[in-house]
Design brief:
The protein has 249 residues and is of the alpha+beta class. It has a 3-stranded antiparallel beta sheet with strand order 1-6-3, with no helix packed on it. The protein is elongated and about 90 Å long. The protein starts with 6 loop residues before the first helix and ends in a 10-residue tail after the last helix.
Length: 249
């Protein structure tokens, strides 16, 4: 039971951590759902284990050409680049310099007169020349727009039916990969958020004496929870956040 595999299992774990059912946790069901959404959002924004690198293939449609952008799904949070749209290396002829270099490299390797170091250096040099002379398509993306803009000639460089390979980062869906619900930081963070909500709910009874002479110290609960939340957020951002320069847009 300490290893939740569902949204409700995560909520139940956090409530037990706070003392339920021995202690009544005065938090509404809707408030619990809101705190789970907040915990997941923060986790997906800052924890490297919540996202993964992927390549997404997209075939351009007439709507893409008209709009001059590609609609991106909500689970994509950043776009790094698009892979070269035109495979010029596949259409070179025997009189092209690149063809002769490749042919010479292959001959040297078969005759054991060349080395992989020399081959790698030449390929790196050719890639640099291609980048300087031809450049790469520039992209602009913002996850709140869900639109990928490519700085190219739509209808000329980008035509209907062409395929685009998008290098991007995607959120891991916890409903599909339910091991996310068992993440240590997510469990700690949700517990602290619910604790803070609990204290805020009890604050209206602050100082009220219950049967047996017990008084409620809601301010202390809120203070402890707020300190725990701050500590968890700082730890997650310092140790597990992806470098900020991986975002584009």
């Amino acid at each position: 039971m300490a290893n939740p595999t569902s949204r409700q299992g995560l909520i139940d774990y956090a409530l037990r951590k706070l003392g339920s059912p021995v202690i009544e946790i005065n938090v509404d069901e809707d408030q619990l759902e809101d705190r789970v959404d907040e915990a997941l959002q923060f986790y997906q924004e800052y924890h490297s284990d919540a996202i993964y690198k992927t390549y997404r293939k997209h075939q351009l449609t007439s709507s893409d050409i008209s709009n001059e952008y590609i609609t991106i799904p909500d689970n994509i949070i950043s776009v790094q680049r698009i892979l070269p749209l035109n495979d010029e290396n596949g259409t070179i002829n025997m009189f092209d310099a690149r063809y002769q270099i490749h042919l010479n490299d292959i001959f040297d390797l078969r005759q054991m007169t060349g080395t992989l170091t020399n081959y790698a250096m030449i390929q790196s040099y050719m890639a640099t020349l291609d980048m300087v002379l031809n450049g790469h398509e520039q992209v602009r993306f913002n996850r709140h727009l869900n639109q990928l803009f490519i700085d190219a000639e739509w209808g000329t460089d980008l035509r209907e039916g062409d395929h685009v390979i998008i290098d991007c980062y995607s959120i891991i869906d916890p409903e599909t990969y339910n091991d996310v619900y068992n993440d240590m930081f997510l469990k700690r963070y949700l517990t602290a958020l619910i604790k803070q909500q609990w204290g805020q709910n009890l604050s209206k009874f602050e100082g009220m004496q219950l049967p047996g002479g017990v008084t409620i110290n809601a301010a202390q609960i809120v203070s402890d929870a707020t300190q725990e939340i701050s500590q968890i957020e700082e730890e997650m951002q310092l140790k597990y956040e992806m470098p900020p320069d991986f975002y584009v847009g």
